[in-house]
Amino acid sequence: MNFAITFLPFNKTIAIPSGTLISEAAAMAEITALHLPCGGRGTCGKCTVQIAENNNIKPSKKQVPACTTRIQDNLTVWI
């Protein structure tokens, strides 16, 4: 099953298979603003992104590491 993920402020939306990491989806969308200094091991916290809740168009205070968070639904991500 594919989900739509939108990256802001880049206004890029792509379809991604369920279970894809946010960092992988960003790479597929050719977004280079996401930094993974620990190599995506989830140890540095430098790839933290804000995500929308309940399909809201404004960022929530919910922050997650892009390198360890898997996509399970349509999602809007602020980098």
Low-confidence stretches: none
Number of strands: 5
What is the spatial order of strands in the main beta sheet? 2-1-5-3-4
Overall pLDDT, averaged? 89
Q: What helical percentage do the residues reach?
A: under 10%
Distance between the termini: 24 Å
Strand content: 25-35%
SSE sequence, one letter per element = EEHEEE
Structural class by SSE content: mainly beta
**What global shape is seen?**
globular
Largest sheet: 5 strands, mixed
Work out the helix count: 1
The radius of gyration over CA amounts to 11 Å
Structure description:
The protein has a five-stranded mixed sheet, covered by helices on one side. It is globular, with a radius of gyration of 11 Å. With 79 residues, it is mainly beta. It is 9% helix and 30% strand. The relative contact order is 0.31. It contains one helix and five strands.
Task: Write a concise keyword list for the protein shown above.
single chain; 79 residues; five-stranded mixed β-sheet; 5 strands; 9% helix
Give a quick summary of the entry:
The protein is mainly β.
Strand and helix map with partners:
Blueprint: E1 2-8, E2 12-17, H1 22-28, E3 48-51, E4 63-65, E5 75-78
Parallel strand pairs: 1-5
Antiparallel strand pairs: 1-2, 3-4, 3-5
